[in-house]
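Quiz preparation item.
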């Protein structure tokens, strides 16, 4: 067994109604003035006001920034950081999916250390702790509340840059399953498969360890057994709790084991064609699984038995069975079948492949991959 290390430096509050603990958490962090980072969609359905009221009722000031969009940009980060300084906030609360958390993490960097978020691209470039941050996920998908990365779109390059540092981990995460029980079916589906992919890629990563395996396997069990139920009925409390916990465990798994070709390839798809991250991942998964089958060490069968509809273990397993099961899962959940269905054009493949190769996730993929391999995978997924 190879050497490895891990730590879980965060505070996680999980449970129905756990949002009520938010003022107490803020006061523990000596924060009496909050910037709440979210999006207008959550504002329009009353979720932002719900959180804002909890904060204000606790005697804490609250200013909202609601211009977060999917695949948030450098300009959005700059605008949110400017508002943080203007309102003299002392902490940041991220409410939403990965986009809101990515923006909040980046704001925390700029407020404390200045410059532009592009200055911090890459690994371990953040010089120290960011401002106190509390993450409140409203989707069971990204796991961003427990991951040390912020992904921001640099429109000048059509490129999704990553800032990766354990300094930007949210100090607290509040996981209240009630928040995901109002999600549209399409969002629940794409986010749920994204979380499943986090667990799968962490599990087959060359950087996997017994610790990350434990997190990934429990995530696959919780998500695999419940994703269809949850998409069918978001009011199913047990399914919602399982999805939120599974997403969290998957996030912890890939924070330490990294991901693979699916995520490396999905970022350029989102950057060039504004495809939602979870949708891009879900479409790419069958193609990448088929490619990685040559490097399988028996883990495909474990994954298959977690996500297959029927119970029990398969008597005679072949890796293609996992690919077909994933294709069926995507179809059941209404995920598009191909990249062409979401507007991806073949002429962009060489540029996307070059960008995908810049991702550190390529190095964690179980099968070695060249830029020509990535181009071919894109064409197969097209």
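Solution:
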């Amino acid at each position: 067994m190879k050497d490895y290390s891990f730590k879980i430096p965060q505070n996680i509050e999980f449970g129905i109604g756990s949002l009520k603990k938010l003022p107490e958490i803020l006061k523990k962090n000596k924060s009496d003035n909050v910037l709440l980072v979210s999006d207008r969609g959550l504002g329009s359905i009353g979720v932002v006001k719900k959180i804002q009221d909890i904060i204000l009722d606790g005697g804490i000031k609250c200013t909202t920034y609601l211009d977060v969009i999917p695949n948030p940009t450098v300009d959005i980060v700059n605008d949110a950081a400017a508002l943080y300084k203007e309102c003299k906030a002392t902490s940041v609360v991220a409410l939403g999916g990965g986009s809101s958390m990515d923006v909040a993490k980046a704001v925390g960097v700029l407020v404390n250390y200045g410059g532009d978020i592009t200055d911090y691209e890459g690994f371990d470039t953040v010089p120290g702790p960011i401002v106190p941050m509390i993450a409140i996920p409203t989707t069971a998908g990204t796991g961003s509340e427990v991951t040390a990365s912020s992904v921001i779109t640099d429109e000048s390059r059509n490129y999704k840059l990553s800032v990766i540092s354990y300094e930007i981990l949210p100090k607290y995460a509040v996981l209240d399953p009630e928040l995901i029980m109002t999600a549209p079916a399409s969002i629940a589906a794409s986010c749920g498969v994204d979380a499943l992919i986090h667990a799968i890629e962490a599990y087959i990563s060359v950087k996997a360890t017994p610790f990350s395996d434990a997190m990934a396997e429990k995530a696959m069990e919780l998500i695999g057994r419940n994703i269809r139920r949850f998409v069918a009925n978001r009011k199913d409390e047990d399914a919602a709790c399982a999805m939120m916990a599974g997403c969290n465990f998957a996030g912890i798994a890939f924070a330490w084991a990294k991901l693979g070709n699916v995520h490396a390839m999905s970022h350029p798809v989102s950057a060039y064609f504004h495809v939602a991250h979870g949708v891009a991942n879900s479409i790419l998964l069958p193609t990448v699984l088929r490619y990685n089958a040559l490097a399988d060490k028996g883990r495909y069968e474990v994954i298959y038995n977690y996500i297959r509809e029927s119970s029990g273990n398969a008597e005679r397993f072949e890796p293609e069975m996992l690919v077909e099961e994933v294709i069926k899962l995507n179809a059941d959940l209404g995920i598009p079948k191909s990249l062409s269905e979401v507007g991806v054009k073949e002429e962009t493949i060489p540029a996307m492949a070059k960008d995908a190769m810049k991702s550190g996730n390529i190095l964690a993929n179980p099968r070695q991959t060249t830029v020509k391999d990535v181009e071919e995978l894109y064409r197969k997924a097209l």
